[in-house]
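Quick start: what a row looks like.
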Amino acid sequence: MQSCESSGDSADDPLSRGLRRRGQPRVVVIGAGLAGLAAAKALLEQGFTDVTVLEASSHIGGRVQSVKLGHATFELGATWIHGSHGNPIYHLAEANGLLEETTDGERSVGRISLYSKNGVACYLTNHGRRIPKDVVEEFSDLYNEVYNLTQEFFRHDKPVNAESQNSVGVFTREEVRNRIRNDPDDPEATKRLKLAMIQQYLKVESCESSSHSMDEVSLSAFGEWTEIPGAHHIIPSGFMRVVELLAEGIPAHVIQLGKPVRCIHWDQASARPRGPEIEPRGEGDHNHDAGEGGQGGEEPQGGRWDEDEQWPVVVECEDCELIPADHVIVTVSLGVLKRQYTSFFRPGLPTEKVAAIHRLGIGTTDKIFLEFEEPFWGPECNSLQFVWEDEAESHTLTYPPELWYRKICGFDVLYPPERYGHVLSGWICGEEALVMEKCDDEAVAEICTEMLRQFTGNPNIPKPRRILRSAWGSNPYFRGSYSYTQVGSSGADVEKLAKPLPYTESSKTAHGSSTKQQPGHLFSSKCPEQPLDANRGAVKPMQVLFSGEATHRKYYSTTHGALLSGQREAARLIEMYRDLFQQGT
């Protein structure tokens, strides 16, 4: 791509004005997860040369976090490639040999949180009894029938009755209960077991949806989430290998780690700082020497923020550095947006985008890995599922803090043991996961051991030799695991969240009133004051773009949704500048 000069008759075009001097649009990507890396990679491949990725944490990958212990790799975050037909994550992994050691048992899993299709799930009650296999199969068939019904409301535009409260959990619980109670063939004892199993299945569902409870998931929108055909796959060498493949084509100086952002100042016709204490970077100056994969030997172009340059966006970092840009791609999680949107954007976000942030849901799903010296479970067992018999008539999946462990739906057996050793992976979600995160490892290991003893009826199960667990809810850079359509929200809210700023129809009147600016005070008082000249001009389009799994209407909550959303926002900018770049070729 060649630098371009705009023609004289386009002098008033806000897209062209700043580029006449600089030749390249500057794009800042916030977040080095799958969405951010995919966006940066796509831009660089199309010839954009002034791209910077700011990552708050000390490593790339976002909600992909592979931890190597001994010879095994454990996934605290993303674990499965969900579907293979047309899934860009699958094709990237397959093309680079990441699935060569994936076993047949890891290639086709019915429930997406199981590590193997081999063996059977052992459903155990809190009285130490194993539920008979035929009872489990009968209940599973019934539950799956009702689950399929929950998809029909969106897909066939069926009306939702008032009794369901537009809730997947409420609808499922009542529908399954009615069918169990009306079954003339089951004895009462069997009915009680099946009624108790409802809550266990809903806990599993809540973990997979990353909601506190399926009661909070919208019934009318539930069927819009789309599953890619094909098996679920585990990457034996770790999901981080996919992240590393994405990052391979990105020069080292482009990604800045440990660089949290405080605020995005957008919709500025022109902006420049005054005062010697903060000096914004010049074009190509990333404050890093070109390292491995960098563009070694090239000198940065320019080193000052020229008074005549036009910058519609300024990114204010926590270290008080100001980075001017033409465009910013925001990839932070919905959890971070919910917590920080009022201070993260100046001026405030449009009212409809704020409403979408509020309506959409994000929860916490955590894993608890327990490593044992020897297995106490049989070779045919692929999971231990916990059924509390006293929850047969329960209408809630919320527990008091001291009973947080009741939200653990069960433990899956990591497979194959030749790779992982003797390891169980427990699942917990919602507010109870946040309570678990506050406990120390010793307390969690003790409670999990007691639960395993209680449900298996084996008082001799030893404590695990090692524990490893995630803490996505309390991590300030995520505030949750992934998104879902909450009761009251719909796919339209996902579209609103993804819509670039400023809005073309009314960029000036759409701003929310939650964060008012005072003239000459555009930056946080935590940094040395750097007032800006904000001389209004023609509004430049697509100053702030949004990506991340929560912005993909069909594939929210998935790694492929995150990657595709990053490519989507990059494509907007590539298309935007296509004609201008062609003028310089």
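That is the whole record. The longest strand covers residues 365-372. The mean pLDDT is 86.
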